[in-house]
Write a structure and sequence with these properties.
Elements (H helix, E strand, L loop, with lengths): L5 E3 L1 E7 L3 H6 L15 E6 L5 E10 L2 E7 L3 H12 L5 E5 L1 E7 H7 L9 E3 L3 E5 L6 E7 L13 H13 L36 H10 L4 E8 L15 E4 L4 E11 L3 E9 L8 E4 L2 E9 L6
Length: about 300
């Protein structure tokens, strides 16, 4: 039976070999020693200044790990990782997995033994991870041999935009080629989503990330922006990383992601200077001045 899902713009990296965990442990913000086989975690790859060049979701698989990256960031992430991997007994390869967005209703058709309380279900060939947030979103990861449940003729931009808008409403950030090297993970609230361990050993960028945690408070963090209209004027999309301004024109931050959805209207995530903004204040995004969006704090406890 075919089920209506939406294909997501991700590429997959497998890291296998006897040194796979040791290698990744020195590069990732998350603690892979604590990653159980029935779970997944978000994590980041950072330069020595603590700025992210990779944002991923990762699981354990046989002989190593499997991680998903937004497609435009994949080549840079792989290139940088390969510079360090030559010193370890492990192999980094792009692998033939695809990712599909689903919800709790659709996913039951793909996994007969679906458990709504589980964070990860399935096996290495076809599995699903449950994303944090109120919308009960799932990503199905399937290799080419296990993706027969997907029928591309049912896929369309509206379904994809609705799914991405729900992910945005849940406060889940995304990193793109245009924003690689622009942000430290706390600015995207990734500590709220379990993407960093402050107890693990050293990794690239750890000194800067830990300093923000223990020695001070970042003035910048991510907020939800939501519009009152249901479509972008003239169909325009703002540039990723575009400046965000108050209604009076003061620049207060940068855009992380933006989606226009039939169900959710205009939704965006932006890193803003929290000393210069108030909850429910209206802002606009550069090149999209006609659309005012209301600033809202993100509740990760719901």
């Amino acid at each position: 039976m075919t089920h209506v899902l939406t294909k997501l713009p991700y590429r997959f990296l497998s890291v296998k070999g006897i040194d796979a965990e040791k290698f990744l442990q020195g590069q990732c913000s998350c603690d892979l020693r604590e990653l159980e086989s029935d779970n997944f975690t978000l994590g980041t790859l950072n330069d020595p200044k603590g700025r992210m060049y990779g944002l991923f979701k990762i699981i354990r698989i046989k002989d190593g790990f499997l991680a998903s990256f937004e497609q435009s960031t994949f080549d840079t992430a792989l290139s940088k990782l390969n510079k360090y991997a030559v010193f370890f007994k492990c192999e980094l390869l792009e692998t033939n997995y695809s990712s599909f967005g689903s919800d709790s209703r659709e996913i039951q058709g793909v996994f007969p033994n679906f458990d709504s309380k589980a964070t990860k279900i399935g096996d290495d060939h076809c599995l699903a991870i449950k994303l944090p947030g109120q919308h009960q979103l799932y990503e199905i990861w399937a290799n080419s041999e296990a993706s027969s449940f997907y029928d591309p003729k049912h896929d369309n931009a509206c379904v994809l935009n609705d799914w991405l808008a729900c992910e945005t409403l849940d406060g889940i950030p995304q990193l793109y080629e245009q924003t690689q090297g622009k942000f430290i993970l706390q600015e995207l609230n990734l500590q709220e989503l379990g993407a960093v361990s402050f107890k693990k050993g050293c990794y690239t960028g750890q000194e800067i990330i830990a300093r923000i945690k223990f020695l001070g408070k970042s003035k910048k963090r991510m907020f939800l922006l939501q519009g009152t209209t249901n479509s972008v004027s003239s169909g325009r999309q703002p540039s990723l990383g575009a400046a965000v301004h108050t209604a009076t024109g003061q620049k207060i931050g940068k855009l992380i992601r933006f989606h226009s959805s039939q169900s959710a209207g205009l939704v965006a995530l932006a890193v803003l200077n929290q000393d210069l903004i108030k909850d429910s204040e209206e802002v606009y995004i550069e090149d999209l001045e006609a659309e005012l969006l209301k600033v809202q704090d993100i509740n990760y406890k719901a």
